Amino acid sequence: MARALNDVPSLDMQVTAMPDWMGTYTPIAPAAISALVSALVAWAAARLSVRTEIQKLRLGVQQKLLEQLVAARLVVYPDLYFLLSELPKAGRAAVNEPAALRGLLDQVNAWDSKHSILLGPHSTNVCYEFRRALAEAASIAREAPANETKRQKAMDAVFSQAGLLELALRSDLGIYGIEVLQGPGLLRTPRIRKY
Q1: Domains of the chain, start order
Q2: Residues 6+ apart with CB under 8 A from 80
Q3: Whether the predicted model's global pTM rises above the 0.85 cut
C-alpha cells in the first residue's frame, strides 16, 4: 500500500501553470457578462416603457378627438332624429298627398349635405341606404295609379332602413358603449344592428 501511494504523482505536478494574463482577466469575465445582461435588461425595459407611453399618448389623442366628434354629433344628430320621427306621418300622408314623402326626402338630403361629414363609416352607408329607400318610396307614391302592394313594400323598406339608421346614429354617439381595440390607440363604438 505504501508503494501505491508513492506511484501517484503529486498534485503539484498535475496542475499546469496558468498564464499570467488569464489570472488577470478571469475575475473580469463574470463582471462583464453581468454588465452586458444588465444593459440588455435595462434597454428592453426602457423600450417597453417608451412603447407604453406612446400608446397612452395615442389613446389620449383618440379619446380627445372622439369627445370632440361626439360633441359635434350631439349638436346635429337631433335634427335627423326629428326627421326620422316625421317618417310615419309622411308615410300616412303619402296616400293622399304624394309630395309628403318627397318633402321629407328633400329635408333628409339637405341634412345629409350639411352634416354627413360627422357620420361614421357604418352610419354613412346606412344613411345612404335610407335615403335611397326613401327616394324609391317617394317615386312610387308619385305614380298616378299607386299600386298599394308596391307602395306598402317600399314603405316597409323605408321603415326598416330608418330603424337601422337610428341604431347607427346611436352607436356613433356612444350610447351603446365604446370599445378599445387591440391596435394601439384605437377606439370604436359598437355597431348595433337591431333592438
Answers
A1: 28-188 (1.20.120)
A2: 108, 111, 115, 165, 169
A3: no
